[in-house]
Amino acid sequence: MEKKDIDWGNLGFGYIKTDYRYVSNFKDGKWDDGEITTDDKVVLSECAGVLQYAQTVFEGLKAYTTEDGRIVTFRPDLNAERLNQSAARLEMPTLPDGRFIDAVEKTIKANAAFVPPYGSGATLYVRPYMFGSNPVIGVKPADEYQFRILVTPVGPYFKGGAKPIVIKVSDFDRAAPHGTGNIKAGLNYAMSLHAIVTAHEEGFAENMYLDAATRTKVEETGGANFLFVTKDGKVVTPKSNSILPSITRRSLIQVARDYLGLEAEEREITLEEVADMAECGLCGTAAVISPVGKINDHGKEICFPSGMEEMGPVTKKLYDTLTGIQMGRIEAPEGWVHEIKL
Ligand SMILES: *Cc1c(COP(=O)(O)O)cnc(C)c1O
């Protein structure tokens, strides 16, 4: 297979149209067989449920080339599970068993020429999504849905090394208790746009959201979970019903325990105790871990001992081990690395 003529090392994180995408429609209570198509346009009624009441959910994962030349994805079974949980919460149909992974495989295989080569730092970002497609004007779930997968090659998240970022404690809330913060839905992002634009204008890279009820506990950022390292070397991540269960964060906890022999714990973390942490990072598919050097809490600065020059030592070990597992340099736990057979 001939790769596309793309300058892989200089790609950004933007949409580039590829040759194929996957489409399946839900109608009369069932999903059709689904197919790969070249048509990148979605034609909808002006009154489609997604346009009126934001009935849409999505996933994000990546396909990449391992050291020994295989095209793989990372734990897509967890994305499949999470998409169904998100869909169920918004009264959307779930996908039948096996459908998600089959569709991901078909889409990546069709676009294999767009999967960046090993060592380029670039990956093929895979975006599965589902939305209500028939006209809805009274407030109720749609009757018809479309499930699609698009892929787009994206550049290395960190160009020239991962520099720690500065974030702020936000005055906006991301998710309500018992709300939709624990599902991957566009609505959680729409309401975060004003907060992130405001934070950027003030010179911060991200927002730290607190729990909406008491504003004392750490939740997450707009699109990544927090991970902290305590001064005695324990890995801790916030536990909350209103944060998105990040697959990267869950994997890092297991890596900390099983590969690095560290204690790792998911528990409530107060903003107050953050000042005592040794390291802080943001975890998600895109960057794996972005180190945080400083948090601004209404003018009061929390500076982590790991500083503003590089990742903290434990964060670095976690990052190197998980990326090593993903790229095939370190043996993966059973089922973590899913090969796309061409
Ligand atoms: C997608 C997402 C994450 C990261 O999840 P991963 O499965 O690790 O990619 C974290 N928080 C939010 C709000 C997200 O939407």
Topology:
Layout: E1 21-27, E2 30-31, E3 35-37, H1 49-53, E4 56-58, E5 61-65, E6 71-74, H2 76-89, H3 99-110, E7 123-132, E8 145-154, E9 165-169, H4 186-190, H5 193-201, E10 206-208, E11 225-229, E12 235-238, H6 247-258, E13 264-267, H7 271-274, E14 279-284, E15 288-297, E16 300-303, H8 313-326, E17 337-339
Parallel strand pairs: 9-10, 9-15, 12-13
Antiparallel strand pairs: 1-2, 1-3, 1-8, 4-7, 5-6, 5-7, 6-17, 7-8, 11-12, 11-14, 14-15, 15-16
Helix pairs in contact: 6-8
The chain binds pyridoxal-5'-phosphate.
Summarize the structure.
With 342 residues, this protein is α+β, with helices and mostly antiparallel strands. The protein contains eight helices and 17 strands.
